[in-house]
């Protein structure tokens, strides 16, 4: 390992040299089945030919001009995303954290218009929204904030999946202007809220004239079995953030707005040097086309249910298994004890998984996996759990 890389990651002792579909090869030639997708990024697997061709073609044509000028691919992608989501407009950045930063700035502008000088954004315990100072503060995990004080003010952390807590906060403060919420908490342990939770948040936002801002960085782009997880609750946010799987590994983030949030940012109020460049937008357009052509969102819904049912059939009576949760192709197997060692054990067996929140096995397989590959993931994970 290089001594010149800042040690911000506890990287596993392995280097991958190439990938194809749901499989990766390390520098020694060993093959692995990827059940993590680069943490929900490579939803189409690795080296998808349509995305690769789009990247190559754009690389031979034009990479960057800056947002001083119009960018055709950016306009096409904005039109496509708004058609898919029902939102009005888009700001493009380079990551999920940047998309959430834009959302936070939009809520501050909204507060300014209302004459609120000390605005509060409601976020939730165990949430994750990014690593910049503002998104770190929004994140509901004290551990990742240690050593970074003073943090920006303006965030109120409440229990997730608890509408009464939000209603109580509304009664206690006139400074609340927005809610920032994940439709399912990924980093927080694959927490799936009750069916009426998002609709309840939408109703409270309407009642109190707040913005509802949904962070779909991990749940969006088909992962949930819908293009957006919020579609499951049949609600539309005022602000929506996307990233991760949008360009299948090419860095991009998107903050979409609608209604009263759509016109809050104007010329000069926000920007990004690389955001929405021709390369990233071409890759994202290719991703959206593949999702449609290969019917992968519908596939995520049906295959995800089958995988979940199989896990339940084989593990739900195990004394160490506390809960088995899923939303489309997002899975969480919660154990009664911490289990970080399973990541290394799976790696030894040629399987890439993740453990989050200490005791939750998180699986985010590519949407393109076959039935046989899905069965292999189930078999290997079950063997790991049963061996505990």
Residues in β-strands, percent = 15-25%
In CATH terms, the superfamily of the largest domain is: Type I PLP-dependent aspartate aminotransferase-like (Major domain)
Quaternary status: single chain
Shape-level CATH architecture of the largest domain: 3-Layer(aba) Sandwich
Give the overall pLDDT as a whole number: 97
Q: How many whole angstroms does the radius of gyration measure?
A: 21 Å
Question: Total number of helical segments?
Answer: 11
Strand order of the largest sheet: 4-10-9-8-7-5-6
Structural class: alpha/beta
CATH class of the largest domain: Alpha Beta
Measure the end-to-end span. 31 Å
Helix content: 25-40%
Record field, number of beta strands: 15
Unreliably modeled segments: none
Shape: globular
How does the major sheet shape up?
7 strands, mixed
Description:
The chain is an alpha/beta fold and 388 residues long. The chain folds into 2 domains: 16-48 and 295-386, Aspartate Aminotransferase, domain 1, CATH 3.90.1150; 51-293, Aspartate Aminotransferase, domain 2 (3-Layer(aba) Sandwich). It is built from 11 helices and 15 strands. It has helices at 37-40, 49-59, 72-85, 96-114, 133-138, 163-172, 197-208, 278-293, 296-315, 341-348, 371-386; strands at residues 16-20, 23-26, 31-34, 89-93, 120-124, 155-158, 176-181, 211-215, 239-242, 253-257, 321-327, 330-335, 351-352, 354-356, 360-363. α2 packs antiparallel against α8, α6 (163-172) packs parallel to α7 and α9 runs parallel beside α11. The longest helix has 20 residues, at 296-315. The mean pLDDT is 97.
């Amino acid at each position: 390992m290089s001594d010149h890389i800042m040690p911000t990651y506890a990287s596993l002792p392995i280097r991958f040299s190439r990938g194809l579909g749901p499989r990766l090869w390390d520098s020694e030639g060993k093959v692995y089945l990827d059940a993590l997708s680069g943490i929900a990024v490579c939803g189409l697997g690795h080296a998808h030919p349509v995305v690769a061709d789009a990247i190559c073609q754009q690389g031979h044509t034009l990479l960057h001009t800056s947002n001083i000028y119009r960018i055709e691919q950016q306009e096409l992608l904005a039109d496509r995303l708004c058609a898919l989501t029902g939102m009005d407009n888009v700001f493009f950045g380079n990551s999920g954290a940047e998309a959430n930063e834009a959302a936070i700035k939009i809520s501050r502008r909204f507060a300014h218009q209302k004459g609120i000088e000390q605005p509060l954004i409601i976020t939730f315990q165990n949430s994750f929204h990014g690593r910049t100072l503002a998104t770190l503060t929004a994140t509901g995990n004290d551990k990742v904030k240690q050593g970074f004080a003073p943090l920006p003010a303006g965030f109120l952390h409440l229990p997730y999946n608890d509408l009464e807590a939000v209603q109580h906060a509304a009664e206690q403060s006139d400074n609340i202007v927005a809610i920032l919420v994940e439709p399912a908490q990924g980093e927080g342990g694959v927490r799936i809220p009750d069916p009426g939770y998002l609709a309840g948040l939408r109703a409270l936002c309407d009642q109190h004239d707040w913005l509802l801002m949904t962070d779909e960085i991990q749940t969006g782009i088909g992962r949930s079995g819908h293009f957006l997880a919020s579609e499951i609750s049949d609600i539309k946010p005022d602000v929506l953030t996307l990233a991760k799987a949008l360009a299948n590994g090419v860095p991009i983030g998107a903050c979409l707005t609608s209604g009263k949030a759509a016109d809050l940012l104007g010329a000069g109020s926000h920007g990004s040097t690389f955001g929405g460049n021709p390369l990233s937008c071409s890759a994202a357009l290719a991703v959206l086309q593949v999702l449609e052509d290969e019917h992968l969102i519908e596939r995520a819904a049906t295959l995800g249910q089958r995988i979940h049912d199989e896990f339940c059939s084989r593990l739900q009576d195990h004394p160490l298994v506390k809960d088995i949760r899923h939303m489309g192709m997002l899975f969480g197997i919660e154990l009664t004890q911490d289990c970080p060692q399973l990541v290394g054990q799976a790696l030894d067996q040629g399987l890439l998984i993740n453990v989050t929140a200490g005791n939750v096995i998180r699986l985010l397989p590519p949407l393109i996996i076959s039935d046989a590959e899905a069965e292999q993931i189930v078999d290997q994970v079950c063997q790991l759990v049963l061996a505990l």
